[in-house]
UniProtKB/TrEMBL annotation:
EC number(s) on file: 4.1.2.4
Keywords, alphabetical: Lyase, Schiff base
UniProt entry tagged with the keyword Lyase: yes
Record-level GO cellular component terms: cytoplasm
Taxonomic lineage of the native organism: Bacteria, Bacillati, Actinomycetota, Actinomycetes, Streptosporangiales
Pfam families for this protein: DeoC
Organism: Streptosporangium saharense
Name of the protein this chain belongs to: Deoxyribose-phosphate aldolase
Enzymatic class: lyase
Family that this chain belongs to: Belongs to the DeoC/FbaB aldolase family. DeoC type 2 subfamily.
Pathway per the UniProt entry: Carbohydrate degradation; 2-deoxy-D-ribose 1-phosphate degradation; D-glyceraldehyde 3-phosphate and acetaldehyde from 2-deoxy-alpha-D-ribose 1-phosphate: step 2/2
GO BP field: carbohydrate catabolic process; deoxyribonucleotide catabolic process
Domain of life: Bacteria
Length: 312
């Protein structure tokens, strides 16, 4: 008999049985499939569409201790008008900042349609109490964040305390109110693809609206095979539960090639139902300029050169 959500949500043994009962990931198969899809070429007309779609999916990110209000304002201006010389360039999906910068981003993005995402829950390590994590989430939402990017407690996950991870995600989700919750698995610390699949299921069962690969502070980050495993998880979760969850690879996505490989992977794994910023994001601090340069190259046949664009 399939256990109910209430059953698994109240017992670590039930959660463990469910997560360890998922089919194992064929590591060699996943690596090969991702590598094969990564070599697919796409037509020039499709490339132009893919670049604009990738721009619309970017969560333009700055997560540095040295972030200043001025840097966040400049990033927000870039999010709304990525190329001031070309109004046909679409806006990005969101700007992603630390909680204390949310109000600045909200102010700078007012009326633009670009969302404000905030990391929370003692990002990037996640090492704090549940009370602090919930309070930090409430602070960011109170300041106007539309989206919260939380980290899971990898220590609890890796020691098999799935219920702790589940309860933490559920508590943060409750603190989000109407804000969307992205759950960062930090796949570079999870050791196996089986763990990535289990952590993705745990995040979805606990109420996450998105599963996200990485903080950008740990390597490896958004690899193609890990993103493939997570795409398979959201596909299977939808078919079993009827609830659709988004995917956000983040960390180390730097070039148009990287971005387009991700889009091919989405198309081939879950289909075009996820080829939309509502369901797929690219978390990146520095991919936008390359997307702009390649876009201009396609349109004019020549590169404008990196100096033409403002810094990411
Ligand atoms: O969430 C997004 C990541 O922090 C960005 O990582 P990145 O700086 O490697 O692009």
């Amino acid at each position: 008999m399939t256990p109910s959500l209430a059953d698994v949500a109240s017992s670590n043994v039930a959660l463990r049985n469910l997560l360890h009962g998922l089919p194992g990931v064929d590591r060699v198969g996943a690596d090969q499939r991702a590598a094969m899809l990564g070599t697919r070429s796409i037509k020039t007309t499709s490339k132009a569409l893919a670049i604009d779609l990738a721009i619309r999916m970017v969560d333009l990110t700055t997560l540095e201790g040295a972030d200043t209000p001025g840097k966040v304002r400049a990033l927000c201006a870039k999010a709304v008008r990525p190329d001031p010389g070309d109004p046909s360039v679409p806006k990005v999906a969101a700007v992603c900042v630390y909680p204390d910068m949310v109000s600045r981003a909200v102010e700078a993005l007012a009326g633009s349609g670009v969302r404000v995402a905030s990391v929370a829950t003692a990002f990037p390590s996640g090492r704090s109490s549940l009370e602090v994590k919930v309070a930090e989430t409430a602070f960011a939402v109170g300041a106007g964040a539309d989206e919260i990017d939380m980290v899971i407690d990898r220590g609890a996950f890796l020691s098999g305390d799935y219920l702790k991870v589940f309860e933490e995600i559920a508590a943060v989700k409750a603190a989000c109110g109407t804000a969307h919750l992205k759950v960062i698995l930090e796949t570079g610390e999870l050791a196996t693809y089986d763990n990535v699949r289990r952590a993705a299921w745990l995040a979805m069962l606990a109420g996450g609206d998105f599963v996200k690969t990485s903080t950008g502070k740990v390597q490896p980050a958004a690899t193609l095979p890990v993103t493939l495993v997570m795409l398979e998880a959201v596909r299977d979760f939808l078919s079993i539960t009827g609830r659709k969850v988004g995917v956000k690879p983040a960390g180390g996505i730097k070039t148009t090639k990287d971005a387009i490989k991700m889009l091919v992977l989405v198309n081939e794994t879950v289909g075009d139902g996820w080829l939309d910023p509502d369901w797929f994001r690219l978390g990146a601090s520095s991919v936008l300029n390359d997307l702009l340069m390649q876009r201009q190259k396609l349109a004019t046949g020549r590169y404008a050169g990196p100096d033409y664009f403002t810094l990411d």
